[in-house]
Structure formats: C-alpha cells, structure tokens
C-alpha cells in the first residue's frame, strides 16, 4: 500500500487550521531547517516547532524529511564548514524523528558560503553529477534512504529535457531515490515550453520513492520588462487538474513508490473553507493511493 503524507509548516495558524488534515495522513513531512535557529556562535539548535513536531513523533506518528538547505549541487571544498554543521544537526534530528527517508532539492542553495534562498541550476554534466552524488552519500551515512527532488528553475544550464537523464546519473547508487514533484514538472514545462509527459518519459521512474503534488500561481506581469508571466511553484493554491492527470498516469509506473505527499505553504490556508478544500485534496490523493494498492 502506498502511504499518503502531508507537510507540516512552522506556522501556528496553519497548524491549527490543518490539524485534522495532518491527523488523517499516514505520515508527516517537515523541512528540518525550519525547526532550527542559529546562535551567534553558529550553533544550530531546535526551536519551538521542533519540540512541537517531536511530540507528535513521540506519539508514534511517522515522519519523513524534505530539506531545503543541504545544497546537493555545491562543492564541498567551498562549502565544507556549513555542510558539517548541517549534517551534525540532521544526525540529531534523525535520532529524534527516525525519518523514513530524507530528500532535498536538486541544485545549489549555497555557493561559497552564501545562501541563495532558492536552489540554482547546476550544469548537467558528469562533474556536477558526481558532486551531487557525493553530497547525497554524506547524507546517506545518517539516513539510509536519501533522494533528490526535481526542482523548478527559472533558467537552465542545458536542455531542460536532458535533466531526467542527469538525475538518473546522480542517483546511480543503492539507496538513492527520486522525489518526483509533478507540479514542478508541470511548472517547468509551462515556463520552458516543453511537454511534461516527454520529461516524464525520460525520468527514472524506477527510482521514485515519493511523489509531491501541490499548486502554484502566475507571476506579476510587472516583474519583467516584457510583461511575460511565469508559472510559480508557490504551493499556495489548489492542485491543478493537469497535475492530477499526471499523478493518475505516472503513479502506477513507479514500482518503488512509498508515499504521495500533498504540499501547502504556510500563510496560504487562512480560514476553515480553505482548510476544507485542502482536506478534499488529501482525500483525492488517498483515492489514487488506494487504487495503486
């Protein structure tokens, strides 16, 4: 049976409004870095949300991790000190949460010690694949099952349709998996002008451990001089019907799939009506998972 997951966000209003949704999920997903704070000396310590989520784990709720700061595409030589602090904190968190698996985003979110806020695209070459695999291997020394999520980029250092084969090269090792984010595929297809199904036809679906579904929105036309709008991976709206269609088509082809996770960003569920709609989406994910069973 494929399990159904829901993301926990470090936001009191979000957690209150989505309490029943989280309770209906088979597992919960957190970004561990959102449950830490950094001291002036550089130590990474648990914050109040860490303690709140750890209490759920102590009651037997399963957790998986989807990080935002490992920066798999970075060079260890330029980013080594930050990486060591990160891994030490993740080791402590894994002892607390017993993560079923740990994934992060394809790309580089830290360059020369500077935080890039969002992951940046890396070259789709063998050297970059080797660096990324090596960093995942460091994480795997803590959590045995690790993986990468296909990420939304707004520029590409190569043909976007070459990305699936690049991911396949990165994950060419035991215990390394793909977190397939279908809204990210849909978003990139819209922005770069390719067919999402062609991207998926090239992807290593035999490596998929988890699927993410979420929604997004369009950028403000005033952001670009041309007035062009881009699809944004905002996790701030309902899952589009096109993404539901992709889920129905692709999930049965992922033989190693363990979970389908519904994502929503904090600050985007503000009343009971929106929470009810989100619960309906979780029920729809559950329906897909049951048909796979």
From the structure above, extract its key features:
293 residues; TIM Barrel; 8-stranded parallel beta barrel; 20% strand
Question: Gist?
Answer:
The protein is globular, with a radius of gyration of 18 Å. It has one domain (3-292): Divalent-metal-dependent TIM barrel enzymes (TIM Barrel). 40% of the residues lie in helices and 20% in strands.
Written account of the structure:
- The N and C termini lie close together (5 Å).
- The strands form four sheets. The chain has an eight-stranded parallel beta barrel, surrounded by four helices. Strands 3-4 form a two-stranded antiparallel ribbon.
- 40% of the residues lie in helices and 20% in strands.
- The mean pLDDT is 92.
- Strand 5, helix 4 (76-97) and strand 6 form a beta-alpha-beta unit.
- It has one domain (3-292): Alpha-Beta Barrel (TIM Barrel), CATH 3.20.20.
- The protein is α/β, with parallel strands linked by helices.
- The chain has helices at 12-17, 19-24, 48-58, 76-97, 126-140, 163-170, 182-192, 196-202, 241-250, 272-292, and strands at residues 3-7, 27-30, 36-38, 44-46, 63-66, 102-105, 108-111, 114-120, 146-149, 176-181, 208-213, 217-218, 231-232, 259-262.
């Amino acid at each position: 049976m494929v399990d159904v997951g829901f993301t926990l966000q470090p936001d009191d209003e979000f957690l209150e409004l989505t309490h029943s949704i989280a309770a209906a999920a088979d597992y919960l997903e957190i970004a561990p870095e959102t449950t830490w704070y950094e001291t002036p000396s550089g130590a990474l310590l648990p914050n109040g949300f860490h303690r709140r989520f750890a209490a759920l784990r102590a009651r037997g709720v399963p957790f998986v991790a989807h990080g935002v700061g490992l920066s798999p595409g970075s060079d260890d030589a330029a980013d080594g000190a930050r990486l060591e602090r990160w891994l030490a904190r993740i080791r402590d968190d894994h002892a607390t949460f017993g993560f079923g698996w740990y994934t992060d985003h394809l790309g580089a979110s830290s360059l020369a010690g500077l935080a890039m806020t969002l992951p940046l695209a890396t070259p789709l070459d063998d050297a970059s694949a080797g660096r990324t695999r090596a960093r995942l291997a460091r994480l795997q020394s803590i959590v045995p099952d690790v993986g990468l999520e296909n990420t939304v980029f707004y520029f590409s250092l190569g043909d976007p349709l070459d990305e699936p084969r690049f991911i396949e090269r990165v994950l060419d090792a035991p215990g390394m998996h793909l977190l397939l984010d279908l809204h990210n595929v849909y978003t990139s297809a819209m922005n770069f002008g390719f067919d999402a199904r062609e991207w998926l036809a090239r992807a290593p679906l035999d490596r998929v451990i988890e699927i993410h579904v979420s929604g997004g929105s369009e950028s403000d036309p005033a952001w670009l001089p041309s007035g062009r709008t881009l699809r944004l991976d905002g996790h701030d709206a309902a899952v589009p019907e096109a993404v539901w269609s992709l889920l129905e088509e692709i999930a049965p082809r992922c033989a190693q799939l363990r979970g389908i996770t519904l994502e929503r960003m904090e600050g985007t569920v503000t009343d009971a009506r929106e929470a009810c709609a989100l619960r309906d989406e979780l029920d729809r994910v559950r329906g897909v998972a049951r048909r796979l069973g």
